[in-house]
Specification:
By secondary structure, this protein is α+β, with helices and mostly antiparallel strands. Helix content is 34%, strand content 22%. β3 and β4 form a beta hairpin.
Length: 484
């Protein structure tokens, strides 16, 4: 081994999803002209991207995981700019910038003046068909409800019921939140998921008053949906570009990490893989689910592993279905629909892919994408494809007036991929950070900590990379045994 090779600082990133790819990219860029540093990314699958996957079939473009990024969180768009692919981003179709919500078995447009969990004005409540008169009257009382003196974390459901009433939770907040987190709102942390609404209560004493000032009477229907962006060739274009960029820093596939050890003599980390090979490094960034990180860290720090284990995950199923346009009688003039749990359907939500982004299906064809699983249909992951498809098709036929059978369908299962930010999540993450920071050379990133969306994952990985970069010039290793 040459003297240069022997003196290299080696950084290993475990996990090739958007978090791991982003971390490896930022590290690679930082040390691009410095031969003293080597970055390797290891991924257990045969390809990178994690849950992000785009395929083509019979002229249709299928998304098997997330299909878009939200530009209001700037980190994904900024990364696209750095990668030189910003010109490949496309916007949602302007004429379809609204969504439906299922109400008593029918698709009802989400009314103007509704912003995520709440109305933006008392006026917007007057003609809201998704609420009963009693429900609208209860929501209208929201400006009179005193702010909560206790600032401890509470569930999203508790907050919405306290301020807006149970109907607001069941008919609006629950289905809107489920489209992002797929988690029971009675378990979901308000501080970790929708902190802006807590801030509205604390600063203005009322959500409706705060939203009224924010939007000043302007419609929030179209502009909010314009924030979603994707790529002409699908969202996987982002992860493929990242993979191409980091190839020169070595992106190794089909390598599943099975054990992590620290060698106190060499002051190095040793990562063992499924093929029994071992890679030695100066720093390790675990860009894997919290439960996987816990498995790798149990022998390193039992307390840290125990904290990571308490982050609960759920599984999800995505069902793509292709149809002839003539077989669907309902107008697909929206981006999709969300479905309240009280409607007792198999799906959490359904995207009208061909109405959301251009280039998703051939002419006179329609592509729909249904989401199942999470806390609302936990058995979906274990069901056979044919059973799942029949359940989805039964619902879609009723809701969209579909006749006939789909041209084809595709079922994708994602096991234990959706972290649920339960009550006390931020405090838990702080404890995890404190424990992790005491172990020099160890770093954690991913969707388990500070946000589940693509921009959040990129931002978290960028901050993690900056921590690695700042520490690598003079790493002072400590004995890990004292932290177990």
């Amino acid at each position: 081994m040459s003297e240069l090779e022997d003196s290299k600082k080696k950084i290993v990133v475990v996990g090739g999803g958007i978090s791991g790819l982003s971390a490896a990219y930022f590290l690679g860029e930082a040390f691009r002209h410095d031969p003293k540093f080597e970055i390797k990314l290891f991924e257990g699958d045969s390809s990178t991207g994690g849950v992000i996957r785009t395929t083509k079939k019979e002229g249709f473009l299928l998304e098997h995981g997330p299909d878009s990024i939200v530009s209001i969180k700037p980190w994904a768009v900024e990364l696209c700019r750095k990668l030189g692919i910003e010109s490949e981003l496309i916007d949602t179709m302007a004429e379809n910038r609204h969504s439906y919500i299922v109400y008593k078995g029918n698709l009802t447009p989400i009314p103007n003046g509704m912003y995520m969990l709440a109305p933006t004005s008392l006026k917007s409540l007057a003609f809201s068909p998704i609420f009963s008169l009693k429900g609208r009257l209860r929501m209208a009382l929201e400006p009179l409800i005193s702010r909560r003196a206790n600032t401890e974390d509470e569930s999203l459901a508790s907050f919405v019921v306290r301020r807006l009433g149970r109907e607001a939770l069941e008919r609006l907040a629950q289905p809107m939140a489920a489209g992002v987190y797929m988690c029971d709102p009675w378990k979901l942390s308000l501080k970790a998921t929708f902190p802006q609404f807590l801030q509205m209560e604390q600063e203005h004493g009322s959500i409706i008053k705060a939203l009224g000032k924010m939007f000043n009477g302007n419609s929030v229907r179209g502009p909010r949906y314009s924030l979603f962006k994707s790529f002409r060739g699908g969202i996987e274009y982002l992860t493929k570009t990242l993979t191409d960029k980091i190839t020169q820093q070595n992106c190794v596939l089909n390598k599943t990490a099975t054990r992590l050890d620290y060698n106190s003599n060499s002051k190095k980390w040793n990562l063992t893989f499924n093929d029994k090979s071992i890679y030695e490094s100066d720093a390790v960034c675990l860009a894997v689910p919290a439960w996987k990180a816990a498995e790798l860290l149990r022998s390193i720090n039992a307390r840290l592993a125990s904290e990571l284990e308490t982050i609960r995950y759920s599984s999800a199923v995505v069902v793509n279905m292709a149809f002839k346009s003539e077989d669907i009688d309902h107008r697909l003039d929206a981006m999709g629909m969300v479905i309240p749990k009280i409607e007792k359907r198999s799906m959490v939500a359904c995207t009208f892919c061909t109405s959301k982004f251009e280039g998703r299906a051939p002419d006179k064809k329609v592509l729909l994408r249904a989401f199942l699983g999470g806390d609302f249909n936990p058995d979906a992951f274990e069901k056979k494809d044919t059973e799942l498809v029949q359940e989805v098709l039964t619902d879609l036929k009723k809701l969209l007036k579909i006749k006939g059978s789909p041209i084809f369908y595709d079922v994708t299962r994602h096991s234990k991929v959706m972290p649920c930010y339960e009550i006390g999540h931020l405090e838990k993450v702080e404890r995890i950070k404190n424990l992790q920071c005491r172990i020099a050379g160890l770093y954690l990133t991913g969707n388990a900590y500070e946000g589940v969306g693509i921009p959040d994952c990129i931002h978290t990985s960028q901050k993690t990379s900056e921590s690695i970069i700042s520490s690598l010039t003079d790493i002072q290793y400590q004995s890990l045994k004292s932290f177990s």
